[in-house]
Structure formats: C-alpha cells, structure tokens
C-alpha cells in the first residue's frame, strides 16, 4: 500500500485503523486520510504531538534513539496536522506543533542542512507522484501552499528548482517513481510528462507569484 516501511508492533495488532501505530510517518499518512474522510483521528493526533522532537520535526527512528528529525517523516506528519485543521479541527496544540514543524523545513530551505548548507539528499530534487512516505522539494512546497504560508526568500531556491524542471512542452516530467501499488496508473513512467507533477508545480508557482 505504500504507507510505510515496517509492520506495526504487536501492541498495535487489532487496534482500529484510525487509532494509530508505532511510526509517525505511517500515522501521518493514516491521519491525513482520516481527516479527509471525516474520521476521528484524535488518538493519532495525540501520539504525533507527543512525538515531536526538540528541533521541531519528527522521525520514525526516534524510538531507536534518534534525536534529529527526518524530512520524510516530518512532511507526512505536517500533512496530517494540516488536514485536520482544513477539515475544521480546532486545537491550539495541533497548530503550534504544525508551525514548529513547518519552520524545521523552512529553516533548511526545503533541502539543505542548516549546519553546512549542503543538499541533504539529491533525490529530493526529482519530483515523484505518488510520493508515498518520501519527501521531495515539490511536496514540501505543495504543503506550504496548502497551508497558506506567505512566500519568503527561504523558498526561493526551491521555487527556482521547480521552474528549472519545466520542459519545452510546458509540462513537468515524473522524475522518480517510488515502489508501490496504485489502483490506477496516473502517469506513463519516469521521464515522461506527469499530469500530477504539472498540476502541483503550476499551483505552487501561482501561489508563490501571488496569482493563486
């Protein structure tokens, strides 16, 4: 299904689907789906709020001792928290946690280490759909657009990257196809024009320029 990498721990076996499990990246994706379909995701939200790390993000490896956040996990959680709010959920703690997580990404200009300025992962410059649990720059920008964040210079490099990926036909290609099973294939494969990447890129550029 592409939701995550591991099977939930035994203590979660038999739990209701929207009750959550051990990994915040999976809980983020389940929570986002639950919010969209009007399900009660309060137990998932409680887990996610309790698992936020001091630097503002989240990491599925925190249970193994990691104290540094992961972009992959953080974007999944941010989408869940935002989905809850967009569905009409009102919880100051959720909003505060989301804004802290949002800053974690912005402080790193969506792709660079805050300490050295180097690109964290070049795979993030190749845009995917569906993204499953993987982060990339277009996914980060699409979250910021949906969240109504006011564009600033910390996004400039990421926007330039999106613009640079546009091909002569005006479309954006599928840069990377992650493993996973789709009920219906929506694109023709890596390197081919992607309907969803094109749609998301145009939305992001319109938002950044003030047209959307």
What does the model show?
The protein is 42% helix and 0% strand. It is built from 7 helices and no strands. It has helices spanning 24-36, 42-50, 71-86, 92-107, 137-146, 156-164, 195-209.
Low-confidence stretches: 1-11
Strand content: under 5%
State Rg: 17 Å
Q: How would you sum up the major sheet?
A: none
What is the residue-mean pLDDT, rounded to a whole number?
Answer: 92
Q: What is the approximate shape?
A: globular
**How many DSSP E strands?**
0
Number of helices: 7
Distance from first to last alpha carbon: 32 Å
SSE ordering = HHHHHHH
**SS class:** mainly alpha
Percent helix, as a range, is 40-55%
TL;DR of this structure?
By secondary structure, this protein is mostly helical.
Q: What brief labels describe this structure?
A:
globular; mainly alpha; disordered N terminus; 212 residues; 7 helices
């Amino acid at each position: 299904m592409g939701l995550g990498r591991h099977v939930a721990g035994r203590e979660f076996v038999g739990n209701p689907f929207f009750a959550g499990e051990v990994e915040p990246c999976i809980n983020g994706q389940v929570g986002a789906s639950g919010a969209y379909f009007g399900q009660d995701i309060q137990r998932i939200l409680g887990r996610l709020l309790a698992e936020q790390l001091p630097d503002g993000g989240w990491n599925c490896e925190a249970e193994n001792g990691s104290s540094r956040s992961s972009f992959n996990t953080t974007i999944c959680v941010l989408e869940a928290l935002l989905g809850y709010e967009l569905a009409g959920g009102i919880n100051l703690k959720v909003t505060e946690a989301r804004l802290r997580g949002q800053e974690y990404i912005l402080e790193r200009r969506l792709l660079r280490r805050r300490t050295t300025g180097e690109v964290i992962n070049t795979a993030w410059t190749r845009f995917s759909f569906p993204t499953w649990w993987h982060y990339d720059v277009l996914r980060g920008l699409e979250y910021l657009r949906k969240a109504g964040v006011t564009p600033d210079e910390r996004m400039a490099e990421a926007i330039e990257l999106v613009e640079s990926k546009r091909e002569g036909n005006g479309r954006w290609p599928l840069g990377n196809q992650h493993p996973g099973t789709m009920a219906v294939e929506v694109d023709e494969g890596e390197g081919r024009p992607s309907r969803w990447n094109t749609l998301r890129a145009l939305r992001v550029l319109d938002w950044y320029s003030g047209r959307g």
